[in-house]
């Protein structure tokens, strides 16, 4: 597998884990607050009242939080028992921001893999989802980045990722399709090539009965 990480990820390997840090640009809270205030004024929104006086600062802090995932250690363990069945974490929360309108999209991810020589600490599947979601994204890219990176780091027999999310850029503006959701998937290795493994993954993920 290709172990190269995206340019905005810094990885430091120790004896026990891979330390993963999102290398975002330098955050300038004061500049972000001024820009938020300018945006509100440009949109004709008065923010001098007591209830809205701090809104530009809140906006700046909120977007900084949305774009800054927490560092984590990708902890793996030897697959001593030779476990060769599917490992699947369902309903991992997804919170990201559409890169076209900077409006949130939220939903869940189902992430699974067929182990090779190593297995992953289960909480790390949620950490990986958060790591790739905390930046301006499109759902298709997010789904593939999660799958590709897990394949690179674990060298498993197969990887599957399904993301189901509601995009506020689609429900709150434009077509205003309230209640609609988007489903994307990426399958790698035997989960893509073997029909029975693929069916099992989608069934356990709740995509089919």
Q: Could you explain how this protein is built, in words?
A:
- By secondary structure, the chain is an alpha+beta fold.
- It has 2 domains: 29-66, no CATH class; 76-204, GTP cyclohydrolase I, C-terminal domain/NADPH-dependent 7-cyano-7-deazaguanine reductase, N-terminal domain (GTP Cyclohydrolase I, domain 2, 2-Layer Sandwich), CATH 3.30.1130.
- It is built from 7 helices and 9 strands; from the N terminus they run ββααββββαβαβαβαα.
- The protein has a 5-stranded mixed β-sheet with strand order 7-4-5-8-9, sandwiched between helices. A 4-stranded antiparallel β-sheet has the order 1-2-3-6.
- Helix 1 (29-42) crosses helix 2 (55-66) and helix 3 packs across helix 4.
- The mean pLDDT is 89.
**Sheet with the most strands, sense and barrel status:** 5 strands, mixed
The number of strands is 9
How are the strands of the largest sheet arranged?
7-4-5-8-9
CATH superfamily grouping of the largest domain? GTP cyclohydrolase I, C-terminal domain/NADPH-dependent 7-cyano-7-deazaguanine reductase, N-terminal domain
Rounded to the nearest angstrom, the radius of gyration is: 20 Å
Percent of residues in helices comes to 25-40%
The CATH architecture designation of the largest domain is 2-Layer Sandwich
The name of the CATH topology of the largest domain is GTP Cyclohydrolase I, domain 2
Mean pLDDT: 89
Supply the number of structural domains.
Answer: 2
Order of helices and strands: EEHHEEEEHEHEHEHH
Uncertain segments of ≥5 residues (pLDDT<50)?
none
Q: Give the terminus-to-terminus CA distance.
A: 32 Å
CATH class of the largest domain: Alpha Beta
| Number of separate helices | 7
Shape: elongated
